[in-house]
């Protein structure tokens, strides 16, 4: 069974930083692209970042470029999102998701999310 | 990186059919057959319901179907059931190797 478990969220002041983690199990982690998606309270889903299987390609939504960094450690079967220079509008539940690229491009498994609250 | 356009809400009675539209551009919906639909119940993680425009993952009811014409994709739910009440999001791969989501549609089963 595919499992994705996020951690690392919390309350942080504007301008602060956090490192979000996503522990994967139940599949060959190193064979899949992975994504982070966020959802602000009461709002819709927003794609944040993608990373290729070997970490050689990374893509970001414009609003986080230069502030967020996606990375992975295939040996530790984990995905990360370093979030810096946080703003109030970054407050959201952050989900990690597995990307299936065979027969299309979709997020076929999701974690339960970790809440990041940016407030003074 | 623009969001795809969905209606904010739709509603239907049990047993009826509803359709949710998702409008993008030639850089996303119109340019690829990589449109997906996700169902999200309150407080839960999203669940993949449709991928590659019209394919259903194993375990998803055949009451859910998808289609696309030009820059607009659609999700149809037939034989509405109370458990279908949820938020629905479309998503598309884009020319920038990124993903775009729609703003979400709240489905109310009357």
What would you report as the Rg of chain A, rounded to the nearest angstrom? Answer: 14 Å
Largest sheet of chain B: 6 strands, mixed
Beginning-to-end CA distance, first to last residue of chain A: 40 Å
Computed structural class of chain B: mainly beta
Number of helices of chain B: 0
Any overview of this molecule?
The complex is a heterodimer of chains A (120) and B (110). Chain A is mostly beta strands and 120 residues long. Helix content of chain A is 0%, strand content 53%. In chain A, strand 4 and strand 5 form a beta hairpin. Chain A is globular, with a radius of gyration of 14 Å. In chain A, 40% of the residues are buried. Chain B is mostly beta strands. Helix content of chain B is 0%, strand content 44%. Chain B is built from no helices and nine strands. Chain B has strands at 9-12, 18-23, 35-40, 47-50, 64-69, 72-77, 86-93, 99-101, 105-109. In chain B, strand 5 (64-69) and strand 6 (72-77) form a beta hairpin. The radius of gyration of chain B is 13 Å and the shape is globular. The model of chain B has no long low-confidence stretch (mean pLDDT 95).
